[in-house]
Amino acid sequence: MRASTPFLLGGGYALEYFTGVNRRTTKDLDLFVHRRDVSRLLVALEEEGLRTEMAFPHWLAKIHVGDDCIDVIFSSGNGVAVVDDGWFEHSVPTALLGQPVRLCPPEEMIWSKAFVMERERYDGADIAHLIRACHARLDWRRLMTRFGVNWRVLLSHLILFGFIYPGERGAVPAWVLHELGERLAVESLEPVRPARVCRGTVLSRGQYLTDIEHWGYLDGRLAPHGAMTPDDVDRWTRAIDDETHEGADHAHRGRG
């Protein structure tokens, strides 16, 4: 291929590298690419005869190689975890099939996985395993910065970590819990803002639609609260039915 695009390897391969957990059958390959490089990569692959598609313009493209699929990820479904220079600056070198590759940093893996709280998928165990395995190497300050205004989500996972591994609570530095706890205490004393916003949609694209569509809450994914556009949200929501049907068909075939 004439074009060369920097990429990071994520998904099950990276998780196994950092945690040793190998409990899943990997149905595809997850490549993380800077947003600015996506179009150039897809054009180059098309010129090489591969079929590509921009599945969701706000975060995901796909490369089809026969019956196999490669996910090209440049953000997250909720628009929060955009792949930027920091992912590459802190990536981890290793080798796969004898070839040098770089893995997504564990901090960014925690950041992007922390918001996956769907009915059919919850990545909390992945986060607990990453903290358990990587706590000594984590840049905790950078991790906290990644979460920004969504720091409550990080705090929730850190509290659960202490519940999951009561004998290893010390893996989370005391100063991290203290600082986030102070934020919580200060915020609890502030007057409640009148805006009716539901940020549950940042955690699950389907389970909080009632709040948005029937109860009058503003969608936390949309400006000024989030980074997604109405078109992004509409396309991402409409895909729920398609993916549900695909999952049902797959389960049916598996029973056949």
In short:
With 256 residues, the protein is α/β, with parallel strands linked by helices. It folds into 3 domains: 1-104, Beta Polymerase, domain 2 (2-Layer Sandwich), CATH 3.30.460; 105-190, no CATH class; 193-244, no CATH class. The chain has helices at residues 11-19, 38-47, 85-89, 106-113, 124-134, 140-147, 151-164, 174-189, 200-203, 209-213, 230-255; strands at residues 8-9, 29-32, 51-56, 60-65, 68-73, 92-96, 99-103, 197-198, 218-219.
Would you kindly provide a written description of the structure presented here, covering whatever features stand out?
- There is one protein chain.
- With 256 residues, this protein is of the alpha/beta class.
- It has three domains: 1-104, Beta Polymerase, domain 2, CATH 3.30.460; 105-190, no CATH class; 193-244, no CATH class.
- Helices cover 45% and strands 15% of the residues.
- The protein contains eleven helices and nine strands.
- The chain has helices at residues 11-19, 38-47, 85-89, 106-113, 124-134, 140-147, 151-164, 174-189, 200-203, 209-213, 230-255, and strands spanning 8-9, 29-32, 51-56, 60-65, 68-73, 92-96, 99-103, 197-198, 218-219.
- Strands 1-2-5-4-3 form a five-stranded mixed beta sheet.
- The protein is globular and about 60 Å long.
- The relative contact order is 0.10.
- Residues 247-256 have low confidence and may be disordered.
